[in-house]
Design goal:
The chain is mainly β. It has a 4-stranded antiparallel beta sheet with strand order 3-2-1-28, with no helix packed on it. Strands 4-5-6-7 form a 4-stranded antiparallel beta sheet, with no helix packed on it. A 4-stranded antiparallel beta sheet has the order 8-9-10-11, with no helix packed on it.
Length: 330
C-alpha cells in the first residue's frame, strides 16, 4: 500500500509538471499581442494557429499597446476605469512577464501609443499632452502639451518630425512638427468632423485620415497644407479605428456602434465592402505583408481574422473580456 501511495504521488507530480510546461509555451515569432481590457491583461497569440499561448497581467484597464522593432518588449498604456490611469506596463514578451510598471508623474489617462525610433510615443488624455518613453533609461524623456480635449490616438511619421493626434472632444486633429533640431514643436490645430477617434497616416505620407465617431464621416487631411481636402460620408454609427493597408490601396474602419468593418478604396475614397463581425468592433491590426487583418470584436470577446484579398472572415480567436488594442511582434 505504501509503494502504491508513493507511485500515485509521483504520478501527480509528473502531471503537475506537464501542466506547468503547457502553461509555458514559448512566444512565437511573429506574434500577435492583444489587450483584454476588462481582464487587465495582455494575451500573446500564435498567428499561425490562432491559439493564445500566454497571458500577462498589466496595470488597470489597458487600452493600447505597441511593440519594439525587435519584437522583444511591449509597452501598454494603462488607461484606467475612468480615464484615471497613471502608468505604463512594460512587458518582456520572451519571458512573458511585466518587467516595469512606469509611474507617469503629472500624466493621466495614457492611451494611444506607437513605437518609433526605439521609443514609445503616447497620449495622455486627461493631461491634454503627448509624451515619449525610453525603454533604455526606463523614463519618460519628453512631454508636449496639445491643449485639446481628450487627445485619444496618435500617429508618428517615420522621420519622427511630425506627430498627428485625434482630439475627440475638441473635434480636431493636431499636427505637431519638430523644428530647430527638435527644440521647438509648434502645434497646428485642424478642425475636422465630430468626435475623431481613429487616425492613420497613408504609407506615402501624403494624407491623414481621421475617423469621426460622432457624425459618420472621415476627414481626409493633406499633410503638405495641413488642411482637410475631403469629408467622406461612410455611414458609421460610431467609428472607432482607421487603418491603411501597407500598400496604401485599402482603408479599414471599425464601427463600434454597428459591429461592422468598413473596407474602403483609399484612392477613390469609396466603400468596397462592409462586413458584419459581431458586437462592438474596435482595434484593428493589419499584418506587415498586408494579407490579413485582425479586428477586435469586444462585445463578443473575440478577434476576427479577415483575408484582405478575398475580404472574407476566415477565422476567429477566442479572447478574454473586452479585447481591443493590438500590436505585432516580429
Amino acid at each position: 500500500m505504501k509503494r502504491k501511495t508513493i507511485i500515485a504521488e509521483l504520478g501527480l507530480v509528473w502531471m503537475a509538471m506537464g501542466v506547468a510546461c503547457l502553461g509555458q509555451t514559448k512566444t512565437p515569432h511573429p506574434a500577435l499581442v492583444v489587450l483584454d481590457k476588462d481582464d487587465s491583461e495582455l494575451a500573446i497569440v500564435d498567428p499561425a494557429t490562432l491559439n493564445v499561448v500566454a497571458k500577462v497581467k498589466t496595470g488597470p484597464i489597458p487600452h493600447e499597446v505597441a511593440v519594439s522593432a525587435d519584437g522583444k518588449i511591449a509597452v501598454v498604456t494603462n488607461y484606467g476605469a475612468h480615464q484615471d490611469g497613471t502608468t505604463l506596463s512594460v512587458i518582456d514578451l520572451e519571458a512573458q512577464k511585466e518587467i516595469h510598471r512606469v509611474e507617469l508623474k503629472g500624466l493621466v489617462g495614457p492611451h494611444g501609443v506607437q513605437f518609433v525610433g526605439g521609443k514609445a510615443w503616447f497620449t495622455a488624455e486627461g493631461s491634454k499632452t503627448i509624451a515619449r518613453y525610453d525603454p533604455v533609461t526606463n523614463k519618460v524623456d519628453w512631454t508636449h502639451e496639445i491643449g485639446q480635449n481628450r487627445t485619444h490616438m496618435l500617429v508618428v511619421a517615420g522621420d519622427k518630425k511630425t506627430i498627428y493626434t485625434a482630439n475627440v472632444n475638441s473635434d480636431s486633429v493636431t499636427a505637431v512638427e519638430s523644428r530647430d533640431a527638435g527644440a521647438q514643436w509648434p502645434n497646428t490645430v485642424i478642425a475636422v468632423g465630430k468626435g475623431p477617434e481613429g487616425i492613420d497616416l497613408s504609407p506615402d505620407g501624403k494624407e491623414v485620415w481621421a475617423a469621426n465617431s460622432g457624425d459618420g464621416t472621415v476627414s481626409v487631411i493633406d499633410t503638405a497644407t495641413k488642411k482637410v481636402v475631403a469629408t467622406v460620408g461612410v455611414g458609421t454609427k460610431h467609428s472607432n479605428r482607421v487603418k491603411f493597408t501597407p500598400d496604401g490601396k485599402l482603408v479599414l474602419l471599425s464601427d463600434l456602434g454597428s459591429g461592422e468593418l468598413v473596407v474602403m478604396d483609399a484612392r477613390a475614397r469609396r466603400e468596397v465592402k462592409r462586413l458584419k463581425l459581431g458586437s462592438s468592433t474596435e482595434g484593428i491590426l493589419i499584418v506587415p505583408d498586408g494579407r490579413r487583418a485582425f479586428v477586435a470584436v469586444s462585445g463578443d470577446n473575440k478577434v476576427a481574422v479577415v483575408d484582405l484579398k478575398t475580404l472574407e472572415v476566415t477565422g476567429t480567436i477566442e479572447m478574454g473580456k473586452d479585447p481591443d488594442g493590438m500590436a505585432w511582434a516580429e
